[in-house]
Amino acid sequence: MNCKKAGVLISASVDGELTLIEEQEFLLHLSECKECSVEFDEAKKTKMIIREKIIRFKAPQALIMSVMQLTSFSTKEHEDTLLYE
Amino acid sequence: MDKPDPTHHTKTREKKESLSREERQKQLEFQHEAVVHLNALYNYALHLTMNPSDAEDLVQETYLKAYRFFNSFERGTNCKAWLFKILKNNYINRFRKNSKEPGKVDYDLIKDFYHSIKDSRIDTTEADSDYFHSLLHEEVYQALHSLPEEFREVIQLCDIEGFTYEEIANMVESPIGTVRSRLYRGRKLLRQQLEGYAKKYGFNTDNI
Question: What is the pLDDT of residues B62-79, one digit of tens each?
Fold first, then answer.
């Protein structure tokens, strides 16, 4: 495996989305190529940054209530109210 | 037997609310399978619309549609992925038609949005001794939103929502190979952005 081929597989490897054979070839390449190893570590870090730094917001209570209501009524009028009010 | 029944009104209401057994089962299953993803859908809608009230509308519409077509949801598959796809389609139909020109990033809008919605949950006590921790939530958010949509989307779906490539490919209607390379290229772009912020603070980014 050359660096170009390994490069495309980097982020898939971070996500655990390589096939077994790809994974083996990729790891073999990493063990021989410092540049790709560094790239691989950076890719892992970037994924971690996104996961840790993007704030998850809580859905507003009013939205929760209205979605819960959707499933406890199912008359036509009710749907229309929700759609067009 | 025919005399007026004082509880008539209440009875009508009860009748309206007492649904068939089948309908009740559908409701229970829907709540168990679909409603549990409400927070994730709301966050996804916020990312797409960058407007809390539009996001609420979008989520509500999504659930309405999902409930109506719940029978077509393939049992045993990922319901969250199914809901995300419905939400995305709703978004395209409803909002993107008459939105700002594609690819144009309005940083002021992002900043305003972020400030308007963030709460006090941001942890200010974390050690900011390295580049990684020095990055602010807002900066990562801004960096993510500076990416072309096709890249931002897959990163969001993969890193934030934890979907598999197969699920993402289905959602964005592209082959898995495309998802793979978009993630690779998108992350590369994102890292360049983030390193830009780090340099701004004077952190040495040579070794990261």
Answer: 999 999 999 999 988 899
